[in-house]
Design brief:
By secondary structure, the chain is mostly helical. The protein has one domain. Helix content is 58%, strand content 0%. Helix 5 runs antiparallel to helix 6. It is globular and about 45 Å long.
Length: 179
Amino acid sequence: MGEACNHESYGIMNLRAIPLGGLVSIAVLLPNLLVVFWSPWPSQSGGNAEVVSENRLLLVLERVGQLGCFALPFFLQIELRGATEAVALGVMVAALALYYSGWLRYLRYGRKEDILYAPMWRLPLPMAVMPILYFLAASMILHSVWLTASAVILGIGHIPLSQATRARLTGLGKEAISE
């Protein structure tokens, strides 16, 4: 028979290896389960529903990016080949730590919806930006240009939607986002 195809050069996982890439997605999705058990107290402004209805294109981009960011890692292997991947892993850990800190703050301060969109340590919208940064860094340890593209698409949709939701929840205009 013919020679076996080398799928590694195409970024496709070796089927004999156990892909740990799925842990990348699980790590980000896990704290989101908090909303299932401890949902936010409703806001007076109507929250995200009004924002989403006004920005359908951004919502589509956000959903496409989410699909790529959450599904692709399950088909990829984590490969730490050198210093670049070590730095990317460090960025992932830092972004995830900040993201988890945001979820702890949400629980600590009474599960108010606006807490999910509030600045933290001078970072505007950390709960929107940190997952994007996390997936961009993850694309380096998973060696996937498709994950990079998915994270960029997610950021194009998710960050402006989060910014608009924050403005709606706080009654502030977009200029207040840079606090």
